[in-house]
Amino acid sequence: MHGRPRKDPKPEDAAASVAKAEKLRSLQSQFLSNHHNKIYTNEALEVNTKLLEVNPEYYTAWNFRKLAVEHRLSQSDSDPDSIKSIFSEELKVVESALKQNFKSYGAWHHRKWVLSKGHSSIDHEMRLLDRYQKLDPRNFHAWNYRRFVAALMNRSEVDELRYTTDMINSNFSNYSAWHNRSILLSNLLQRKVQGFFPKELVLNEEYELVHQALFTDPDDQSGWFYYLWLLDQTVKADAPLLVSSWPARDSLIILEDQCLDDRALSPFNTFHSDSGTFPLIVYFNQAVEGVNSSTISVESVLNANSELNWKPLSTNNSQTAQVWVTYLNYPKVDVHSEAYPVEVSIGHSGGIISSSGFHYSHPSRFAFKVFARPVKTPIGHGGEIISWQDGNFALYETSPEEPNPTISLDQLNSKDDNEKTSSEWRAETIANEIALFQELLSEISCKIGKLTLARLLKAHDTLLSPCANKMVYSEEVIKLYSDLRVLDPPHSQFYKDEHSLTLLQQITSTRESLLRYCFLHGDGTSSFIGNSMCLRLNNLSLSRMGSIERLLWVQMLDLSHNELRSIEGLEAMQLLSCLNLSNNKLSGFTALGPLRLLKLLKVLDISCNQIGSHSIDTTRYLCSSPLCHTEEMDWGRDETVTADVNLANYWEAFVIFRGLSLTQLDIAGNAVADEKLKSFLVKIVPTLKWLDGGELH
Amino acid sequence: MGELATEKHVQYILSVEKRKDDFISVAMEYLRMNGAYWGLTTLDLLGKLDAIDVDEVVSWIMKCQHESGGFGGNIGHDPHILYTLSAVQVLALFDKLNVLDVEKVTNYIAGLQNEDGSFSGDEWGEVDTRFSYIAICCLSILHHLNKINVEKAVSYIVSCKNLDGGFGCTPGGESHAGQIFCCVGALAITGSLHHIDKDLLGWWLCERQVKAGGLNGRPEKLPDVCYSWWVLSSLIMIDRVHWISKEKLVKFILDCQDTENGGISDRPDDAVDVYHTYFGVAGLSLLEYPGLKAIDPAYALPVDVVNKIFFGR
Asked: Which residue ranges does the record annotate as region Disordered (chain A) (predicted)?
């Protein structure tokens, strides 16, 4: 019961309730008997009408009415007047039911049913709606019904848009009206209806409208969500774009067929693999489908004879992903071999499409060179343990001629004039909005205002990047998020996540800032990994990982001693072979889902997290499993391993670890990590040599 | 802060089951199947399902089944997908899915899919994303998801996505936390959560928490205990539940208890009912309140029940 006060019923009320109940019971049983016996007489309809007046949610009674109408129509002599009176009666019953309960699904649907039979008129329904929507301007049934009537009777979207303007002007705090406005306006803009083109002019007017709402009552949420949508319309490009790749544009990649043993080379662009192949990763600004050998052409002698197989890096096995990977063969390994050019062309034939249906429309091209070197002395494979202790790391000192590791690809697309106007308009709009909100916030302290300003400042930096390749406002944004954590404690983790993302953008924005986090691991000879450069983003209070598009080159990553709950997005780091996630807040194995796509991962430290300490798993549905029908559980293959464990308790570990080829795992310091689990893991990961620091035999 | 009055709530649920004479009980007869699901799931979360006579419940449920395969809200009432899911869920609670003629039930549900991928609630054609969730959840529990066109079902749900990241009843319908649960749940079960902008939706959902700690279902509305379920489960499925204050929400739910007579209400000091009692307890379970069984955010059944269905052998 909604909004009914809790109190002990007075004796007289209780008696009245029993009497009322008795009456309703009698109506209900008379009705059911009529319904079961298909009795559609006037008396039966009268019982039904009375029942629905008292209890409009009684769905079977609405079904009965429809049957009765059909019955009466079949009996009538198709005289238009009598048909009309049959339907008018139904409209009346709906109206009186709605008086009793404005939220009755059954009543609203019955009215739609009558209208879809061609009865009533648009004027009549609009008058009725105007009355209802004045009484309850937020009723979503009425709004849904309004959209239904408008569509059924071809009322123009421009008229409906005007209605939302009226509703908003009479009360800014009407989220329902703002919502409907966003729907109508998107349609009008998309169809470029007269008066709604160019988009820039329309959006300028919308900014003005929403400013009035925001400045009238900055604490009311209704306008802010609309504002956020406008901002999104302003900055977001519809069409998918290529953001970055590995190998990066114009880079020279040194491939090692065994192990790096020549310290003269930059660790940023060396890559080692035993498999004879190396990945080619393309990173888009949004999820796309349709990446294949015909939409991306790769010209090189390295794959002359074979068609490339592109794989979406999707944690739920979907054919849509923001990041795609394929594998190219190593060139011939020879000391005197030349550097082989590889040229990648994207989008010259259509087919790459975003989830919202936009085509990749800026054909682009980039090239890199690869060079394979043999090793002098093959070194052991995972024979030695990798230690993450601080003493094993030394800050990397770069030589000036070394290539920039963070080079990224965006905005290499040529732009036509039309886009130039719109990008100028974008920059101008964002600058105006920033000024406006800085002024507003100098007068009042408003939570969503601050958040919006932070978003505007980030949008500003994103628009300029990577041409400027510098975050102008990141300090201010970080300060705003810190303020917000104090101002709005219940949402502090949201602001912390945003803070982390901004910090990572800042760190990865320039070569100088990134180099402060680059370390060489060990003495360079004892490591079996091909590249001893480690990116150490440890101890930064990061609660979320981001800016991964700039970190595709990383092969060894230290994220320990942060506050990470998830590693969403890490699947893009296809080169990763060593990962330290110890001392974070990971709360379940399913949070490690992205690791399943990292085929080169050998060393993993997840010690001292919270795996097994929580009864609710927040990544249960973000990880591919039988629960979400993205894969079958193939226990059978591992019958001997799984025979003696309760699979309902171990399925997460099974799903995550079975496909990994780890040689070293640290898992101590998690509630789940008892001896039984460890022996289970040893069985399902046969490549494992080191577990929690101990050597396995 | 008070504690969860477990024993009182158990007594309350058992008493509601027996109460038949007051007006509200009579008026609610048509949805007794939903009531059974709310009450019995609450008892299971509280660890007290053994207070129930299983055979009695199962035989009553089967009397509500229509020859079409669907279930009505009570004996003699028309079949509807809403009550069909509740019937299947209750049978799953008791591990009694084997009493069903699975072909018949799943045929009924699959028969309600429309050409555009959407689902009708029954033969009278009301379309709503609630029914998409129900169909998908029900068929998944019965291992018959392949009976429908999942791709079309998903694309219909996606067509109901709004510019605030949420979902409405039909394309263009305003976002509402209950509807969002249905759509996120259906996308979760079909492995399609990549259609959701988790940050956009997560922020909209976390802004449902009002100063008092409770959650509302839409902007500028009053908080209500039932959104502890709709909002929380959605936030959990997209891994953004840490964006709200769990402590404040626990307090709000506990403040809505009737500590004298048991039951939980929509807001403090309002009248209690089984619906809000279920959503309050289920919300506390999602908040990892001590002593409660864990509930699955997508299937709305205890995790052990769901794990048995999908990982049992």
From this structure: 399-421
Residues of each domain in chain A carrying CATH 3.80.10:
553-695
Mean pLDDT across chain B, nearest whole number? Answer: 96
Q: How many domains does chain B have?
A: 1
Mean pLDDT of B173-182: 98
Chain A interface test: which of B8, B26, B66 (most A C-beta within 10 Å): B26
- Inter-axis angle of helices B177-189 and B226-237, nearest 10: 40
ipTM of predicted assembly, 2 dp = 0.96
**A54/B22 Cβ within 8 A:** no
Instruction: Delimit the CATH 1.25.40.120 region(s) of chain A.
Output: 17-206
- Is residue B132 scored above 60 in pLDDT? yes
On whether any CB of chain A is under 8 Å from the CB of B213, the answer is: yes
> Residue type for A695, please?
E
How far is A406 from A249, CA to CA, in rounded Å? 11
What DSSP state is assigned to residue A632?
-
- Of A655, A80, A175, which is closest to residue B164 (Cα–Cα)? A175
Task: Give the model's pLDDT for residue B161.
Answer: 97
pLDDT at A261: 44
Which of B240, B311, B313 to mutate against chain A (most A CBs within 10 Å)? B311
Distance of CA A255 to the CA centre of its chain: 35
Nearest to B195 by CA among A99, A289, A336, A596: A289
Measured on CA atoms in the order B2, B7, B13, B18, is the torsion positive or negative?
A: negative
What single DSSP character describes residue B291? T
B211, closest residue in chain A (CA to CA) = A490
**Residues of chain A scoring pLDDT < 70:** 1, 257-266, 305, 333-337, 374-383, 399-419, 465-470, 523-531, 636-643
The answer as to whether B155 is a domain residue is yes
Please tell me the CATH code under which domain A242-375 is placed. 2.60.40.1220
Has residue B227 been placed in a domain?
A: yes
CB contact under 8 A, A493 and B243: yes
Smallest CA–CA distance from B196 into chain A, residue: A355
pLDDT value of position A411: 46
Architecture per CATH, domain A17-206, reads as Alpha Horseshoe (1.25)
Query: Does some domain include residue B1?
Result: no
Dmax over Cα atoms in chain A, in whole Å?
103
Report the CATH fold assignment for A553-695. 3.80.10
Closest CA relative to residue A620, chosen from A584, A589, A581:
A589
Domain range enclosing B189: 6-311
